[in-house]
Amino acid sequence: MTAYDAAFAAADRYTRAIAAGPAAAEAAARNALMRCRDALGVLLERLTDLGYPGGGAEHPSRLNTVPGLGAPLSIDAVAKLRATLPVEPPRVLELFWEIVGGIDLCDARERAHVLFFVKRSLRPDTPESLIDPLVIEAPTEAWLERAIDALAAAPEDEAELPIAPDAFAKDNLGSDGPVTLAMNDDWMPLLEGEFAWAGRLRPRLSPASPDLLTYLRASVLECGGFPGLFGTAEFEDLRRLLTAGLPPF
Fold first, then answer.
1. What is the 3-state secondary structure (H, E, C) of 67-101?
2. Is the sign of the CA dihedral 142, 88, 207, 244 positive or negative?
3. d(CA 9, CA 7)
4. Tens of pLDDT, residues 209-240
5. What Rg, from alpha-carbon coordinates, does the chain have?
6. Contact predicate 100/70, CB 8 Å
7. Does pTM surpass 0.85?
């Protein structure tokens, strides 16, 4: 079975678990996110070995060795977040907070992540080229304030949670607004707002409008953490190194 086949099979198991009911969906989401956490750990260790500047300065690693991963929340902390937000978040996002915490490969202030690729001739140095490093924000106090403001400003049936900067903001090139998460589905909430696949090619593992877990799957297992570089010849060798043998989820 190829890596693509394994990833598609994992996605199919998740979809079938959702159809089987909430208990099966919960178990499947937990399993998928634990494997996602493991894949992220391997990916970030590989990037660290390459001298990647990482990101997530405000989200120290759970292991204090790999930058980029946020600390997972306790069940009580997730419950407190749920009670604080004016609209209940999708259950899969709550599990992401509990199991992964947050992921941040961006260093927008200094653009160090951009220079990493430019200096290694792994990114075409053109204005339209974006790195789009993987970011799903951890629920910090600053994030919570923004989330509450965004939810309060929207009608309940149009509520969306900000979960990441858009691709331009990640590279410190301005922004049209955040990437958001729809609030109308517990297990497959869609990425909305200013989300778009920024690379030359859309990942095979994802439709144009992915749900949260599909986005993570494609961004990690197929794009090596950098969807904006997907489809560029300069990135291909590194992409294969970064994604080799990652556990499918």
1. CCECCCCCHHHHHHHHHHCCCCCCHHHHHHHHHCC
2. positive
3. 5
4. 999 999 999 999 999 999 999 999 999 999 99
5. 17
6. yes
7. yes
